[in-house]
Design brief:
Length: 399
């Protein structure tokens, strides 16, 4: 932008000088002149009585991209200690359906070092192609190496959609890759679909503190990139499928990275594994107190379930952070989810609404949780749960 003063129109009235908060304009020989203090705020333009000052804005032109060159869906695998993480297979399950809608190939991209004997097995999860970038240094995660290798690979192959797990690793390298590609990136998606008419990826995520679900598109640029929360989609069943394996062995040396892994310290894992649990019993504010949570724990023990809760139960120190379910906690999809005293705020629903069967226990018949529950029980949980535990024990004793 620039400010232009027409010296033929300017009368030297000094209205502009008085209006400028930065002393960026002065009168010289009865004509207004811009000096080095001007920051292009435009205040002088608005007050000039003879329209002698004009703020010219350069037209911002977006370079048009030929999106027809881009084709196919890529899932970027995540691994730790030579094991592919569950989020990878969850993304494969969803991506297979998206690829079928678009009638394009689905590729699984693995950056690693010791997966040669497992590639055929990985192909049974729906991939048409496996791109295996093999190097000893890729045994561990190096952010800068990942970014460079993936960026170069994407530029060369031009996939139209790239899906990455919204894990600590994925959240680290995904935005860096997007920046290098000048591509859009939608973070922490909880839903993916295809617009049949435009073939754009519809990326749904919670926004405004989880109060609104926004669906985002990137119609004018490629690739379309998204990170997806673990536990949102289910892993597919294995199936026989012909898969093309492409192995790439770039020369990568330790000096190519600015970091060095000196030692890996294993963090002691918490006993709760909510993301893989088949049954979860969760409590909310309606439980009443930390002492009352003992009742919820008893129900979980009888059912052989994991124990979880809403955000407020963690904030009140009734449960540990690892047990929180929802937008700012874990995303789960068990076969059975029992919500006890949980009202059903959207922030919590985001984390558990994909459960196969949802049972809600709440004394408020208008609680939002009942809108997503398959079975709703309007009752005081402190009276209902003891009776439920008693009946479960009876059934188990017979079996």
């Amino acid at each position: 932008m620039s400010i232009i003063i027409d010296d033929k129109l300017c009368t030297g009235c000094a209205s502009c000088v008085e209006s400028c908060p930065y002393s960026g304009i002065e009168i010289i020989d009865n004509v207004a002149v811009i000096n080095e203090k001007c920051n292009l705020c435009g205040a002088c333009v608005e007050v000039c009585p003879v329209d002698a000052i004009v703020l010219e804005k350069e037209e911002f032109k977006v370079k048009k991209m030929d999106i027809s060159q881009y084709n196919g869906i890529w899932v970027i695998a995540e691994h730790y200690q030579d094991k592919i993480q569950p989020i990878t297979f969850q993304l494969m399950g969803k991506s297979r359906g998206l690829a079928d809608i678009l009638k394009v190939n689905l590729s699984l991209v693995i950056l690693g070092s010791d997966f040669d004997n497992l590639l055929e097995e990985f192909g049974k999860f729906g991939a048409d192609e496996i791109i295996y970038v093999k190097s000893p240094i890729l045994k561990s995660y190096y952010s800068d190496i990942y970014v460079k290798v993936l960026s170069d690979l994407i530029i060369e192959n031009k996939p139209e959609i790239i899906l990455i797990g919204a894990t600590s690793t994925g959240r680290d390298f995904a935005p860096r890759v997007a920046k290098r590609l000048n591509a859009g990136l939608t973070a922490d998606c909880t839903g993916l679909d295809i617009d049949i008419n435009t073939h754009n990826l519809l990326q749904t995520r919670p926004t405004f503190g989880g109060n609104i679900m926004a669906t985002i598109r990137t119609p004018n640029s490629r690739p379309q990139m998204a990170t997806v929360r673990p536990g949102i989609f289910k892993s597919p069943k294995k199936s026989k499928r012909e898969v093309h394996i492409r192995k790439i062995e770039p020369i990568i040396k330790e000096k190519d990275t600015v970091t060095k892994i000196v030692k890996i310290i294993e963090k002691e894992k918490f006993s709760v594994n909510l993301e893989e649990a088949k049954i979860i019993v969760a409590g909310g504010r309606g439980v009443g107190s930390k002492e009352n949570f003992k009742l919820i724990k008893k129900l979980a023990m009888v059912l052989g379930a994991e124990l979880g809760g809403s955000r407020v139960t963690v904030e009140l120190n009734w449960l540990d952070q690892e047990q929180q379910i929802g937008q700012t906690g874990k995303t789960v999809s068990p076969k059975l989810y029992i919500a006890c005293g949980i009202s059903g705020a959207i922030q919590h629903l985001v984390g558990m609404q994909n459960s196969e069967i949802i049972v809600a226990i709440n004394k408020d018949p208008n609680a939002p949780i009942f809108k997503v529950a398959h079975y709703g029980i309007v009752a005081d949980l402190h009276e209902f749960i003891p009776a439920l535990i008693k009946e479960i024990k009876k059934v188990k004793s017979v079996l």
